[in-house]
Write a structure and sequence with these properties.
alpha/beta; Spore Coat Polysaccharide Biosynthesis Protein SpsA, Chain A; 2 domains; 8-stranded mixed sheet
Length: about 325
């Protein structure tokens, strides 16, 4: 039996400070991933970096055949970058991980060993979230609590650090939606999974590029992608508001007919503000879902590729894709020549 092969997919954005040193550390642990398993390729996906990251990765890919660079035309987001890497990843298994060493590369041999025992998904599980501010910790806890409540999927302390079997990779790439939540979709697919705990290490190389606003937008996208409960909640809010309005109306009428009505418009003003607030929140929730429908119906590709250095053997079959074929088949790879 020929040995099985493993590829790594690493999304990268503005990591010039430590990307070369971090990739050397990742390669040190991935070079010999396990018995009868060889490293096929380390695929770095540059998500439109504005610093020297693409230049450094381009040089590495030309000097070392183990490295491959997929450079996107602009910053499309981490989810799109991971999808770009998975679509061109070769091998019987693929590991998705970050480049800042917060996903410990020392666990790669253990993940491969568990995969060889029969698990199709091996995911890193955060036993300790590492150093983070109180606001970030509370935000994460709140997001996972709301996500679990609305989608019935408990992703608390899950991460994007995952090993996926070839079949899982193919099924993930076949999913039609463009707005993706990687860890949620992999969990939703329901393949046999094993979890391996790890402690989030100190970030190697600069500060995170994820601002609070980007995290908030990502959280809203993730929740609305997996649950329509907020839309259904509007109906319940409307029912409660109706009961409250009916109760206040009956009280007001009773006081008027008994001669105990108090002059002024306090009740009317408060009632108007309450109803107006409920209406505005309801319209906002519906607007989020309509916006997601609008984005999906445009059928735009999730990303565009600027260049590929160190193309895999099957790249000719999947890249570039003619525009008319791309719009019909849902392919997301294109190029500028």
């Amino acid at each position: 039996m020929p040995p099985k092969t493993l590829s790594l997919v690493i999304p990268v954005f503005n990591e010039e400070v430590a990307i070369e040193r971090n990739l050397a550390e990742i390669l040190r642990h991935a070079a010999n991933p396990g018995d009868d398993v060889i490293l096929k390729r380390i695929i770095c996906v540059d998500d439109g970096s504005s610093d020297r990251t693409r230049e450094i990765l381009s040089r590495l890919a030309r000097e070392n055949s183990l490295f491959m660079l997929i450079s996107l035309t602009r910053n499309f987001g981490k989810e799109a970058a991971m999808l770009a890497g998975l679509k061109l990843a070769e091998g019987d298994a693929v590991i998705v991980m970050d480049s800042d060493l917060q996903h410990p590369p020392a666990l790669i041999p253990d993940m491969v060993r568990i995969w060889q025992s029969g698990c199709m998904v091996v995911e890193g599980y955060k036993s300790h979230r590492g150093r983070e501010s109180l606001s970030s910790k509370l935000f994460a806890e709140g997001f996972y609590a709301v996500f679990a409540l609305l989608s019935r999927q408990d992703l608390r302390n899950h991460s994007d650090f995952k090993l996926l079997d070839r079949r899982v990779v193919e099924e993930y790439c076949r999913l039609p939606e463009r707005g993706r939540f990687f860890r949620g979709l992999v969990n939703w697919m329901g393949f046999p999974v094993a979890r391996i705990p790890f402690q989030v290490a100190e970030r190697s190389g600069g500060d995170s590029t994820w601002s609070r606003i980007r995290r908030l937008r990502f959280s809203i996208d993730a929740i609305t992608s997996f649950s329509a409960a907020p839309l259904q909640l509007i109906g319940w809010i409307g029912a409660v508001t109706f009961l409250l309005t009916a109760t206040l109306s009956l009280i007001a009428l009773y006081q008027k007919f008994t001669g105990r009505a108090v002059g002024g418009f306090t009740t009317v003003i408060l009632l108007t503000l309450l109803v107006s607030s409920v209406l505005m929140v309801s319209i906002g929730i519906m607007g989020i879902y309509i916006g997601k429908i609008y984005e999906e119906l445009k059928f735009r590709p999730s990303y565009y590729v600027r260049e590929i250095i160190g193309e895999p053997a099957h790249a000719e079959a999947t890249w570039p894709v003619p525009q008319e074929q791309s719009s019909r088949a849902g392919h997301d790879v294109d190029t500028f020549r």
